[in-house]
Amino acid sequence: MPTVDADQILPWLRSPQSSHLTQDMRNAMWIIASAPLLDQEHGPLPMFAFPDRDELLYQLLKRQSEKALQKHLSTQRSHFLGSYYEALLSFILSISSSHEVLAQNLQIHCAGKTLGEFDFLLRDIRNQEVLHLEVAVKFYLQHGDYSPAHWLGPNARDRLDLKLGKLTTQQLQLGSQPAAQQILLEQALPTPEVRTLLQGYLFYPVSQLNTIESLPLHAEHGRGRWVSPSQLSQVIDESADRYWCALQDKTAWLAPYIQTSDTGLWQDHGLDTYFAKLKNKPFKPVLLAGLRQEENCFIEQERLFVVPDAWPALPKSPPTL
Fold first, then answer.
1. What gap in Å lies between CA 190 and CA 175, rounded to an integer?
2. What is the distance, to the nearest Å, from the Cα of residue 279 to the centroid of all Cα atoms in its chain?
3. CB 47 within 8 A of CB 195
4. What is the Cα–Cα distance from 73 to 263, expressed in whole angstroms?
5. How far apart are CA 262 and CA 245, in angstroms?
6. Is 113 helix (H, G, I), strand (E, B) or coil?
C-alpha cells in the first residue's frame, strides 16, 4: 500500500504546498506526525505511539477523507480544545489498520457517583491486546525552576505536575476499580493495558529555548517562547522579517499555522505598538504565530505567548484582546 513519510509531514505543513488543506485536516495530520511532550522511553507514563503513521497519513490525504473528517467533526463540535482534539483522534483511530475503537468516553459510575471515564478503549489488531488510552493536549509555560510544578498553563491554574499526578493516581488506575472491572466483564474485555498520548507545546522564557535535561521531555516536543509586553521589542528586533498573527481560534493552536492573505497581520514594531498600551495591565494571555512570507502564503515559523507583566499572577476575569 502506498504511504507517506511521517517524518516529512511537519516540514511540509510549513510549506506553501500544504496551503490547500483545511485547518481540521492540518490538525489531524499534526496529531499523527508530532512528538509527544514526554519521552517515550524514560518518561513517567506508558506512552502511546501510532505504529502505522505513514499509512494513516496516506489515508488522510485521500480526497474523500477530508469530507469524511468534516462529517465526523460536525457531530462532535465543542468550544473546548480538548474535546476537539479527542474528536480528531477518534477519526484517526477509525481509519487505523492497527487499532479498533471499542469504546470512547465510557463513564464508570458507582453509588451514584462518576468515578471517571475511559477516554478510549482500543484493541490492538496486531496482538489482540486491549488498551485504555488517556489523551490530552496541553500548553505549558515554564516559570521559576524546571520542575513539573513550574510548567504552568496560560491561565496559571493548570500545571504539568498536577496533570501527571492525576494521570498516574486516578485516570490510568480506572481499569482496576471494581465498578470498571464489572463493566469490562459485561463486555467480555480483560483489564486493559494503559497508555497515554500527551501532546501540545511547551513555552520557554524568551531567553531560553533549550530542552531541560532534568525533565523527561521528548527531544522533538513542540515548543515556543513566552514574553511580557515589556519584552516584545527584543523579540521583534530578533525577527525583523516576521509577520505576526494572533491565534484567537484555538483550533489554530495545533498544527503549524498558515494563511493566504495579509489580513489581520502585524509587521515590525506594529506588534510592539499594539501591546505597549497593555504594559503593567491585566489581559488574557495571547498566542501569536510568527509568520514568514513565501510565495502567496504566510507560514508559521515560531510561536509566542504574550502574557501580562504580572503573570502568573492574573486577575479572576482579565479583559480579552
1. 9
2. 29
3. yes
4. 27
5. 9
6. strand
C-alpha cell at 142: 515554564
pLDDT at 1: 46
Each residue's pLDDT tens digit, 198-239: 999 999 998 775 555 567 889 899 999 999 988 888 888 888
| pLDDT tens-digit map of 67-78 | 999 999 998 877
Q: How far apart are CA 126 and CA 211, in angstroms?
A: 35
The rounded distance, in Å, linking the Cα atoms of 210 and 221 is 11
- The alpha carbon of residue 103 and the mean position of all alpha carbons in its chain are separated, in whole angstroms, by 22
Count of CB atoms situated within 10 Å of the CB of 179: 15
Distance CA 319, CA 286 (A): 11
* Grid coordinates given for 7: 517524518
d(CA 114, CA 310): 38
Q: DSSP string spanning 132-172? A: EEEEEEEEEEE-SSSSGGGEE-TTSS-BHHHHHHHHHHTGG
d(CA 117, CA 274): 44
Query: Which strand (E) or helix (H) includes residue 203?
Result: strand 193-205
Q: Helices 63-74 & 23-33, crossing angle to 10 degrees? A: 100
Q: Which residue has the cell 471499542?
A: 102
CA distance 306 to 248: 13
Question: How many Å apart are CA 255 and CA 224, to the nearest integer?
Answer: 13
Please indicate whether residue 97 or residue 318 has the higher confidence score (pLDDT). 97
pLDDT of residue 321: 47
| 91, three cell numbers | 477519526
